[in-house]
Design goal:
The complex is a heterodimer of chains A (252) and B (790). With 252 residues, chain A is of the alpha/beta class. Chain A has one domain: P-loop containing nucleotide triphosphate hydrolases (Rossmann fold), CATH 3.40.50. Chain A has a 6-stranded mixed sheet with strand order 6-7-8-3-9-10, with helices on both faces. In chain A, strands 2-1-4-5 form a 4-stranded antiparallel sheet. Chain B has 790 residues and is an alpha+beta fold. Chain B is 53% helix and 20% strand. In chain B, helix 19 packs parallel to helix 21. The two termini of chain B are 35 Å apart. Classes of the chains: A alpha/beta (252), B alpha+beta (790). At the A-B interface, helix 3 and helix 4 of A face helix 13, helix 19 and helix 22 of B.
C-alpha cells in the first residue's frame, strides 16, 4: 500500500488533541474501475473529525475531497481502510446499518440543495425530524438559519440562498454528530454564499456539531479550525488556524 | 449508413425498452382484438355468404300440418317467388346402438335420386339415397363423427310409431343446418341431435303423406320484398295449418350465424378502442417526459442547425417505432386469436369449409387506427419539442411549483407524514395525469370484469334455466298432441315418480300494429316441474285466467298488466281470441306467453290434451327408463336435463375459458403498462429526490414507498371506479352487441368474486411493476445526486 507522505503530521494532530474524535477514517483508499480503466480517487488517507470542530477540505476538482466526504458520510464504501464512528467500523456493516448511521448521526448539505419540491420549508425539515431520535422543532431549526418567517414557502418560492439555508436547517434539525457540507456555496453568488456560511457557522457554534465543509474556494478556509488540503487523492497539508475568521468577514 | 439521429432514436428506444415494450403490449392487445374480431367476422361472413349462394339456401321457410303437393303451382305463382321446394320433415327419436340414451333427430325428405333444387346437400362421403331404397339414409356429418358412424353402419329411428333400421349411405352438410340445435335446447349438441335425409317415397309411406308436404322453402327473385311474399304465403297456407312463414333472417340456423356476426362486430368496435386509448395516453406521457429530459439535446440539435421539422420528425419516429412494434405484435397475436376463434366456430358451426384466410383489410385497419391514435395523442408533445427555441432548450426547465392548496387540503395533509405528503402533493400538482392514470387502472379492471362476466352470465342463465325453470328430469314430446290418457301411460313407465303436461301452440300475438310470432305455453296450475319463473321474484303463479308474458315480450308488444291483446292461433281451427295480460315475468331465455293448460285447450277447442310430458324420475331407474324410451312409439323428443346441463357447461365453458384467459392476459398487460409507465416516469422525475432522501437516512423501503405510493393511491381510487366502469362497460357491451335477442337476454349480473378476481389481476400487475421498480430504487446512485444539477 502506498503510504501518505503527510501521515506523521496527522498522527501528531491526533495525539496532541485531548478529545476523542467524533469520526475517524484510517487508510482510506478508493479506486473506481470503469472497464479497463482504474481511477485512484483516494489513496491511503487518514483523517479525524473532532466534536465541535470545523474543518474545511480544500482541493481542486478531482482531488478526492468529495470521495472522502462520501466515505465519511456512509454513502460509499472504501476499497480499503475503515471509517470509525463511536468505535464502530461503519465500513464493515450492511446497508441497513449505513442507512441508520446517516439517519441518526450525519447531516448533509449539498451543492444543489436537493430540496423536495413538493414540500414546504417546514415540511422539508420535518422530513428529517420525523425519523430522527431527538430532533429540533423544524421551526426552531429554520430560525437558526434565519428563515423563521419563510416556513410555509415551497422551494420554488425561495431564492437559491434561502433554499440552501433550508437544506442546512434540514441537515441540523436532527442534531447530528457530524455535518458534512459538499460545496454548499458552489451554486451561489458571494453575498448569498456568505449568508449560508454564517448559518453553518452558527450551527457549529450553537450546537457544537463537528462540521466538514468541502470547497475549492480557499477564502472559506479562514472560517475553519483546521484546513485539510487534498490533491490527487492524498492529503497534502493540514493547517491549524490560530483564529477562526467570522464568515461575515469573508469575501471573494 | 444510419444517420446520427436515427442511432440516437434506436438507443433511446433501447434505453426505454421497458416502457416501450409495455406500451407496445397494450397496443398489441388492442390490435390483436381488432384483428381477431374483424378477421373472424370476415371469415364467417365470406364463408356463410358463399355457402348460402352456392348451395341455394332458401329465402323463405314455412311449415304446415299437411298440404297437398299441387299447391306448389299456386305458391310458384305468388309474386316474386323464384323456385320452391316441398318436403316432408319430421321430428323422430333415434337409437344409436353404442349410445345408452335415446337421441333426437329430424327426418328430411329428399327428391328421389337427386339433389334438391334448394337447400342442397354437400355430400361429404358416400352417395345420395337411391330411388326405391326406403332403408337408406344420409346423415349429417357432425352427428356421424360424434358417434363414429361410417358408411354401411345402421341407425334405428322410430318413424311414425314404427322402429325402422336405416343404413347410412352418405354423410352430408347443408346450409340449412350450419347451426344444428335440437328443439328446446340451449346450445347445439352434436351427439344428441342428428339430421337424417331419406327418400321422399320412404317418408311418404311411413307418415302417410302421399301427395302431401309439411315443409316448404322458397327463393324469391332479386329485389323482392320477402315481407309481402310471407304475407301472401300465410294467406295461402292458412287452411293447411301453417305456423307462419319466416324470412331467412329468422331461420334458426341463419339467425344464430347472423347473431355471431353481430357479436363479432360489436367486439371489434368496443374492446380495441379501450386499449388504443390507454396506449395513446401512455405513449403521450412517455414522449412528453422524454422531451423534457432531452431539452438540452434538442437545443443542441437546433444549435447545430437541425430544423423544427427534422426535430419533430425525429420524435414522431419514436412514436411510430413503438406503435409499429405494437402493431406487428398485435398482427401476429390477432392472427393466432382469429384462427383459434374461427376454429372455435368451425367446432360449433357446421361449415363445409371455414377457412381462415384473413384479408389485408383487418390488418390495415388495425395498423392505421393505432398509428393514427398514437400520432394524434403525441402531436402536441412533438410540436412542443419541435418548437423549443434553442436557448430555452439549453436551460433546464423551471422547477415545478407547488401550492399549499385550499384550507381543506391543508387540514387533510397536516395529519400525514412527509413521505405521504409528497405523494399526495404530486397527485394534486398534476391532477390530469393522476386522473388519466387512475382511468387506465379503472380500464384494466373494467376489461377484466367484462371478460369474466361472461362466465357469470352463462352460470346465471344455466342456473335459472336448469334449476328453477326446468325442474323435470326428463321431458318427452310427441309429434301430435295426445289425450291426457298419455299422462297415465308415462306415469307407469319405469322410475317415473311424477308427471306434468305442457303444451305449446303456435300463435301470433298482436297488439295494435305490433306483432310477435311465437307460441302459447300451456302449463298446469299446480305445476311443480315447469314453473313460470321470474329471475327477481322467483316462481310466478299460473293465473286462472289470462296470460303471463315474458317482460321482453310485453315490451315488444307494448303491453302492461291488465292490457288486452289479440291471439291468432296458427294451429287447429285457428281461433282468434282476445286475452288479458295477467302478469309479466323476467327471464333470461326465450319470450314466452304462459297460460293454464286447461284454458289453452279450451281456447283451441280440444279435449284435455298434452304435447309434452315432464317427468320426475327416480335416479336409480333412469337408465331403464331411457332404454324403454328408445323403443317407445309416438315419442318424438326426449330431453334429459342432466345431459343438457353437462353439455351446456362443457361446450360453453370450454370455448369461453380460452377467451377469458386471453382477456385476463390483456387486462394484465393493460394494468402493467399503466403502472410501469407511471412509476418509470415518477422515477425519472423524482430519482434525484429519492436519492436525496436515501442520503438523508431514509431506507430503500421509504424511497420505494414514495415512488409507488402515488400509483397505489391511484389504484385505491381506481378500484371502485373500475368496478363501476366494469359494470357500465358490461351493460353497454351486452346491450349493443348481439346479446339481447328474442332468444336470450344476457343478464347484467356480476358476481362479487368477479370483482375480486379483477382486482387481484390488477394488483398482480402492480406488484410485477413494483418488483421491477424496487431493483431500480436499490440501484439509485446516491453519490451522483450530490453533484448533479437537476
Amino acid at each position: 500500500m502506498e503510504r501518505c507522505f503527510y501521515k506523521p503530521m496527522v498522527v501528531s494532530t491526533q495525539t496532541t488533541s485531548p478529545l476523542k474524535p467524533a469520526l475517524s477514517g484510517s487508510g482510506l483508499t478508493k479506486i473506481y474501475r470503469t472497464g479497463e480503466i482504474e481511477v485512484k480517487a483516494l489513496i491511503d488517507v487518514d483523517i479525524d473529525l473532532f466534536p465541535g470542530e470545523m474543518v474545511v477540505l480544500l482541493g481542486a476538482s478531482g482531488s478526492g475531497k468529495s470521495t472522502l466526504l462520501n466515505l465519511l458520510g456512509g454513502l460509499d464504501t472504501p476499497t480499503s481502510g475503515s471509517v470509525f464512528f463511536r468505535d464502530q467500523d461503519i465500513t464493515a456493516t450492511d446497508e441497513a446499518t449505513l442507512t441508520r448511521y446517516r439517519r441518526d448521526y450525519v447531516g448533509f448539505v449539498f451543492q444543489f440543495y436537493n430540496l423536495i419540491a413538493s414540500l414546504t420549508a417546514r415540511e422539508n425539515v420535518a422530513l428529517v425530524t420525523e425519523i430522527a431520535k431527538e430532533p429540533l422543532d423544524p421551526v426552531d431549526a429554520l430560525g437558526i438559519v434565519g428563515l423563521g418567517d419563510r416556513v410555509d414557502h415551497f422551494p420554488a418560492q425561495l431564492s437559491g440562498g434561502e433554499q440552501q439555508r433550508i437544506a442546512i436547517a434540514r441537515a441540523i434539525a436532527k442534531q447530528p454528530a457530524i455535518l458534512l457540507c459538499d460545496e454548499p456555496t458552489g451554486a451561489l453568488d458571494s453575498e448569498t454564499g456568505v449568508v449560508v456560511l454564517e448559518a453553518i457557522e452558527t450551527v457549529n457554534r450553537e450546537l457544537g456539531t463537528a462540521t466538514a465543509i468541502i470547497t475549492h474556494n480557499s477564502v472559506t478556509a479562514g472560517m475553519a479550525d483546521r484546513v485539510i488540503s487534498l490533491a490527487d487523492g492524498r492529503i497534502v497539508s493540514i493547517e491549524q488556524n490560530a483564529e477562526r475568521t467570522p464568515a461575515r468577514q469573508l469575501t471573494w | 449508413m444510419l444517420l446520427a439521429l436515427d442511432k440516437k432514436l434506436l438507443r433511446d428506444l433501447w434505453r426505454l425498452k421497458g416502457q416501450v415494450v409495455s406500451i407496445a403490449l397494450v397496443i398489441a392487445s388492442g390490435v390483436a382484438l381488432l384483428v381477431m374480431a374483424l378477421s373472424t367476422h370476415e371469415a364467417l361472413r365470406v364463408t356463410s355468404d358463399a355457402y348460402y349462394e352456392r348451395y341455394r339456401f332458401a329465402h323463405v321457410f314455412a311449415t304446415v300440418k299437411r298440404a297437398p303437393l299441387h299447391l306448389d303451382e299456386r305458391i310458384r305463382s305468388l309474386e316474386g317467388v323464384q323456385s320452391t321446394q316441398l318436403r316432408i320433415s319430421m321430428q323422430a327419436i333415434l337409437d344409436v346402438e353404442s349410445f345408452a340414451e335415446p337421441l333426437m333427430g329430424r327426418l328430411v325428405s329428399l327428391p328421389e335420386g337427386r339433389q334438391p333444387n334448394l337447400n342442397r346437400l354437400i355430400l361429404r362421403s358416400g352417395r345420395l339415397v337411391e330411388p326405391g331404397r326406403p332403408d337408406e339414409v344420409v346423415i349429417n356429418e357432425s352427428f356421424a363423427e360424434a358417434h363414429g358412424l361410417v358408411l354401411g353402419d345402421t341407425i334405428q329411428a322410430i318413424v311414425n310409431d314404427n322402429k325402422r333400421t336405416l343404413r347410412i349411405v352418405g354423410t352430408a352438410m347443408s346450409p340449412e343446418f350450419i347451426y344444428v340445435i335440437a328443439p328446446f335446447a340451449l346450445i347445439p349438441d352434436k351427439k344428441r341431435y342428428g339430421i337424417l335425409w331419406m327418400g321422399r317415397k320412404a317418408l311418404e309411406a311411413a307418415y302417410d303423406y302421399d301427395g302431401a308436404f309439411n315443409d316448404l322453402s322458397l327463393t324469391v327473385l332479386r329485389g323482392t320484398d320477402t315481407k309481402q311474399t310471407i304475407q301472401a304465403l300465410d294467406n295461402l297456407l292458412a287452411p293447411y295449418g301453417t305456423t307462419g312463414a319466416v324470412d331467412r333472417s329468422d331461420h334458426l340456423s341463419a339467425w344464430f350465424v347472423e347473431n355471431e356476426l353481430k357479436q363479432n362486430q360489436a367486439s371489434a368496435r368496443i374492446l380495441p378502442t379501450i386499449f388504443l386509448l390507454v396506449a395513446a395516453f401512455l405513449t403521450n406521457t412517455v414522449l412528453t417526459r422524454l422531451i423534457i429530459t432531452e431539452r438540452s439535446e434538442i437545443g443542441l440539435m437546433k444549435a447545430f442547425g437541425y430544423s423544427n421539422r427534422e426535430v419533430g420528425w425525429h420524435y414522431t419516429k419514436f412514436v411510430m417505432a413503438i406503435t409499429v412494434l405494437g402493431v406487428v405484435l398485435g398482427w401476429l397475436l390477432g392472427a393466432v386469436l382469429g384462427r383459434i376463434s374461427t376454429g372455435n366456430y368451425a367446432e360449433t358451426l357446421n361449415f363445409p369449409m371455414l377457412i381462415y384466410r384473413p384479408g389485408v383489410s383487418a390488418f390495415v385497419i388495425g395498423a392505421v387506427v393505432s398509428l393514427a391514435v398514437g400520432l394524434l395523442a403525441t402531436a402536441r408533445a412533438v410540436r412542443q419539442a419541435a418548437g423549443l427555441p434553442p436557448v430555452v432548450a439549453m436551460r433546464p426547465p423551471a422547477p415545478a411549483s407547488f401550492r399549499q392548496g385550499s384550507a381543506w387540503l391543508r387540514k387533510c395533509l397536516a395529519v400525514l407524514d412527509e413521505p405521504t405528503r409528497i405523494v399526495v402533493r404530486q397527485i394534486v400538482r398534476w391532477p390530469a395525469r393522476a386522473v388519466v392514470t387512475a382511468g387506465g387502472f379503472a380500464g384494466a379492471i373494467a376489461m377484466m370484469i367484462l371478460s369474466l362476466y361472461f362466465v357469470d352470465a352463462v352460470d346465471a342463465i344455466a342456473n335459472t334455466h336448469f334449476e328453477e325453470l326446468q325442474r323435470e328430469h326428463i321431458s318427452l314430446g310427441f309429434n301430435d298432441p295426445k289425450s291426457s290418457v298419455v299422462l297415465n301411460e308415462v306415469q307407469r313407465l319405469p322410475g317415473v315418480l311424477a308427471v306434468e303436461p305442457t303444451r305449446a301452440v303456435s300463435a301470433d300475438l298482436v297488439s295494435g300494429h305490433r306483432r310477435h310470432r311465437g307460441a302459447l305455453q300451456g302449463v298446469s296450475r299446480d305445476a311443480q316441474l315447469t314453473k313460470i319463473y321470474d329471475v327477481e321474484r322467483g316462481a310466478v303463479p299460473v293465473p286462472a285466467d289470462g296470460v303471463v308474458l315474458t317482460s321482453r315480450l310485453a315490451e315488444k308488444l307494448a303491453l302492461g298488466i291488465g292490457d288486452d291483446f289479440e291471439v291468432r292461433v296458427l294451429e287447429g281451427r285457428r281461433p282468434v281470441e282476445t286475452l288479458t295480460v295477467a302478469d309479466t315475468h323476467d327471464s333470461y331465455i326465450g319470450m314466452f306467453a304462459y297460460m293454464d293448460i286447461d284454458v289453452l285447450n279450451r281456447l283451441i277447442g280440444d279435449r284435455p290434451v298434452t304435447q309434452y310430458v315432464n317427468t320426475w324420475v327416480d335416479d336409480e331407474s333412469q337408465n331403464e327408463l331411457l332404454a324403454t324410451l328408445k323403443n317407445l312409439p309416438a315419442v318424438s323428443t326426449v330431453g334429459i336435463k342432466a345431459v343438457a346441463v353437462s353439455n351446456f357447461h362443457e361446450t360453453v365453458a370450454g370455448s369461453l375459458m380460452i377467451f377469458v384467459g386471453f382477456f385476463s392476459a390483456f387486462s394484465f398487460a393493460l394494468g402493467f403498462g399503466v403502472t410501469y409507465n407511471a412509476q418509470r416516469i415518477g422515477l425519472s422525475e423524482r430519482g434525484r429526490e429519492l436519492a436525496t432522501l436515501r442520503v438523508l437516512g431514509f431506507s430503500r423501503g421509504d424511497a420505494l414507498y414514495i415512488l409507488l405510493g402515488e400509483t397505489m393511491l391511484l389504484v385505491c381510487v381506481a378500484l371502485p371506479i373500475g368496478c363501476l366502469l366494469g359494470l357500465a362497460l358490461t351493460a353497454m357491451f351486452v346491450n349493443t352487441s348481439g346479446f339481447q335477442t328474442e332468444l336470450m337476454r344476457l343478464p347484467v349480473l356480476i358476481r362479487p368474486s368477479t370483482y375480486g378476481v379483477a382486482l387481484v389481476v390488477l394488483l398482480a400487475a402492480c406488484a410485477a411493476s413494483a418488483i421491477a421498480m424496487k431493483r431500480r430504487v436499490d440501484r439509485l446512485d446516491l453519490i451522483a445526486v450530490l453533484k448533479t444539477r437537476e
